[in-house]
Amino acid sequence: MNIQKFMRLIVGCLVIVAMVKIFFNPSKDTSVKTHQIIQGANFWAKQRIPQLNLVHNEEDPVKKEHADNPEVQPEEKETIQSNQEELQPVVPDDTPMDPLKIVHLDLKGAAPKVKYLEQIFPLLSTLGASGILLEYEDMFPYEGELSILKSSFAYSPEDIEEMKSLAKRHKLELIPLVQVFGHLEFVLKHEKYFKLREVQTFPNSLNPQAQGSMDLVQDMLTQVMKKHPEAKWFHIGADEVRGLGESKDSKRWLETNNGDMGKLFLNHVTAVGRFMTKLKEGIKLILWDDMFRKLNSDTIKESGLQDLASPMIWKYIPNMDVKEIGNYISKYEQAGFKGVWFASAFKGASGIDQKWTPINHHLKNHLQWQKVITSMPQYKSVRFQGIALTGWQRYEHHTVLCELLPVAIPSLAVCLQTLKYGSFDTEAQKEVQRLLECQIELSKNECKGASFPGSDVYEMVKKINDNLESSVQKIMQSYHVKGSFSPYHRKRSFANPRNLAFFKDELKKLMDEWDSFLLTFRQNMEAIFYPDTLEEWLEENVNEHIERLHGMVVDAERIIKLNGQPKVDPLKKR
């Protein structure tokens, strides 16, 4: 009996061991499905490329590719390592396969306060944005020798930390943008840097051959990078390098290099790219593509830039030529670029002094870009990495303000949802209207009854845009103003009080209504923007009309008191 019990115990143990082995044995099928490219409206589906399953001691093929790259010299590797130790943490190579949808904040004018960003970042995330492109310009808190570059209202280091925290909280990739070649007006306007201008009389572009130019660029990049050590992407600008080749230094270089303007440009941006990869191991660089468009793919490939950065192809017009964009993509693919970015516009690209964002204009631009996005599977060796929805605040540092950010929120919402759904169909429109609590009317370029952060400024700018100038013009064209209160009458203090009485009260009422309205407008603007923005916007869009109203009221009251006396004769001796 005891033997039988013992045998049963042994059999039971064997069964248990067998079951444990079966349960914990990993599947022999270790194949991993490759990431599928989803076309059309589903392009933005949340797919991820799986991690590589490397056997122990097997080398990562990406690292092997860089190790085999003859462009990286031994001494350069040593420098990269030392800089890696200085700037921590190292950026992990975990870039998502999903193309990013980045909202561009152009801070060269009307930079919003961080308190407003605190309200707007969650909305951007909900609308479908996955990142923010911060074009700092003079809003970065530069220090030391570069402190001259910062605006009086530049963000503080604490502001930047808060922005980074907000972005992380709302799952928005934060990408700094620092210009390194063209559009350096905010730097080269200072007399201290006149000697670094490519054209001595213009502050647009840096002289790449001048002593001190690269030191300046490296110092700017280092300061910004130290405030963004966690950044995975960094945009180095490099568009519209006006006047390149016109300085004496550049002309001498061109004489000894067969007049190769392409190489002159590529040498500088490639040197900047190499510096950035040494400064921060693993950083992924972006630059605008327009300076490449006339270069052939072999010229670009010879520079080595394709191993350092990705081009961002930009086009902002409604009737964008999709075939032309395809030609650029093909060229950059042939040049060896592994990835490509696109740049559309949700504001600031429809007129240099535009006050009111034309939603339909920007929607059409995004519909064209959607066609390009859908075509990307045909390009086998270059990957679509993302699209930046640009929101230009000025065409350049010295030009007037374009539309304010709150005014363009409906346009931005329409454009983001168009990219999400593949078109601005009924579903996309319903989603925009639900999130902004408004009625979108594309034919009128407006969002009626809106309720979003800054919607009070949106509504008030609309009233100013639609009614201020026209209301003043209307009263100036009235019968009695035209007949009895002309500039001549006012200058000579000559009018019949009876005639002025017909419009005096209406004139005063109009002035009081606008004064009261603008007092509230100022308060709402001050909650979002710094004082310099309010001053500039009022000067450009309001003051001329309000001052005319005030002048008319003062003159009418003064002349009425004269009781119709003879006109002032400038020729009569007093």
Automatic annotation (TrEMBL):
Its EC number is 3.2.1.52. Keywords: Hydrolase. SUPFAM superfamilies: (Trans)glycosidases. Belongs to the glycosyl hydrolase 20 family. GO terms for molecular function: beta-N-acetylhexosaminidase activity. The keyword Ubl conjugation does not apply. This is beta-N-acetylhexosaminidase. Signal peptide: none annotated. Residues 57-79 have a biased composition (Basic and acidic residues). InterPro entries: GH, Glyco_hydro_20_cat, HEXDC-like. Residues 151-318 form the Glycoside hydrolase family 20 catalytic domain.
